[in-house]
């Protein structure tokens, strides 16, 4: 029962992490314009994401523009896109794999060993998906931080971390943690030793010797 509860907890955490990765990928707030400087502009807020750039006016109106050409984008942005999409696809595969190996499901009940292996395999895929999302968000955040502290970057073109990055970091951590729980939920098989063979007892001596 304890392993089943740990398995369910791991799947829920990993599933929530996968949902968070999707939300982070779709959000345009990967980086937001920084107004830390002499020229403070509060009329609008600028955001940039993996797929579009947006400007929010002080009235609350948001205008977004999708990036025109894929080939004109920076290589780092394309790599971040690829990692996040790969994390989403891997998470989808991990969901179907882990559900097949869940103890609460009736699939593969005739072979418990394969069923447990499917749950562990799903946990491993969740960990890989979380690592891909963690690498993508950390790589993107590192580029934003380096550009912000670069003295040659104009003040009016500096950006800070957006909310999508924080969601991506939290989602990747949940996916990795949930996958680890799934891997640890497989109970260890106890080694069965053959029963010890007793030695035959000697018959009691009658005190008579036979020739």
Automatic annotation (TrEMBL):
Any one GO cellular component localisation term in the record: bicellular tight junction
Keyword terms: Cell junction, Cell membrane, Membrane, Tight junction, Transmembrane, Transmembrane helix
Chief location category: other
GO-annotated molecular function: structural molecule activity
InterPro entries in UniProt: Claudin, Claudin1, Claudin_CS, PMP22/EMP/MP20/Claudin
Keyword Cell membrane applies: yes
Transmembrane segments: 7-27, 79-99, 119-141, 161-184
Protein's cellular compartments: Cell junction, Tight junction; Cell membrane
Membrane topology: Multi-pass membrane protein
Family classification: Belongs to the claudin family.
PANTHER family linked to this entry: CLAUDIN
Function of the protein: Claudins function as major constituents of the tight junction complexes that regulate the permeability of epithelia.
Name of the molecule in the record: Claudin
Organism from which the protein derives: Crypturellus soui
Gene from which this protein is expressed: Cldn1
